Amino acid sequence: MGSRVTRLIRNFNLENRAHREISKTKPKAAPRHPASSSSLQEDIAEIHQKNDPLLSMLKDVYVESKDPDPQAEAVPEVKKVEEEMQRRALKYSLPGEPYGFCDVTDVPKGKLSLVEALTALNNHKRLPKTWTPEKLAQEYSLDPKDAKALTEFFFPFDIKIIPPKAEETKQIKDS
């Protein structure tokens, strides 16, 4: 029923509204740029024309180039390869293949695997006097600055239980 009413309102006086819209004066188009085709051709001809003063100045330019020493470039590449090859075996890994991480057998020096990071943080949390940032840096081949930041800013398994404020609150009890 509602669609019939909306159709009647929409189609009311439709032809008169259409004729009124069509008979309105149309806005004038914006004026075109006053460039004629002859001036465009002149510009193109001017672009392709040789400019003798510029050519003579270009002939006076002398560029001298020397290739870099090939031995100087080879040395940094060798150092990068040696740095990448410095790897260490994993201290701890996941048992079996439950998560698909078994193919990782070694890590670059200065980096930790996820399991090693959690183990190191847990050891530091349980025994902070034994597992100092210096010992963690030595044990896992880390930069001392990174080991200090690791122990300072990351806390594994830190659960805080907030006790209720009043004794009137209901608590769940074992049944």
How are the SSEs placed, and which strands pair?
Layout: H1 2-11, H2 14-23, H3 37-48, H4 52-60, H5 70-85, E1 87-89, E2 106-108, H6 114-126, H7 133-139, H8 144-153
Antiparallel strand pairs: 1-2
Keyword list:
two-stranded antiparallel sheet, mainly alpha, 8 helices, flat, 50% helix, 175 residues
Question: Could you characterize the architecture of this molecule?
Answer:
This protein is mainly alpha-helical. Helices cover 50% and strands 3% of the residues. The chain has eight helices and two strands. A two-stranded antiparallel sheet has the order 1-2. Helix 7 packs across helix 8. It is flat. The model has no long low-confidence stretch (mean pLDDT 80). One of its GO terms (biological process) is mitochondrial respiratory chain complex I assembly. Binds calmodulin. Interacts with NDUFAF3. Belongs to the NDUFAF4 family.
List how many beta strands DSSP finds. Answer: 2
User: How far is the first residue's CA from the last residue's CA?
Assistant: 61 Å
Give the topology string: H per helix, E per strand: HHHHHEEHHH
Strand order of the largest sheet: 1-2
The shape is: flat
Contiguous runs where pLDDT drops below 50 for at least 5 residues? none
**Major pleated sheet:** 2 strands, antiparallel
Averaged pLDDT = 80
What is Rg? Answer: 40 Å
Strand content: under 5%
Return the structural class. mainly alpha
Helix percent band: 40-55%
Q: What is the number of helices?
A: 8
Summarize the structure.
This protein has 8 helices and 2 strands, in the order αααααββααα. By secondary structure, it is mainly alpha-helical. Helix 7 (133-139) packs across helix 8.
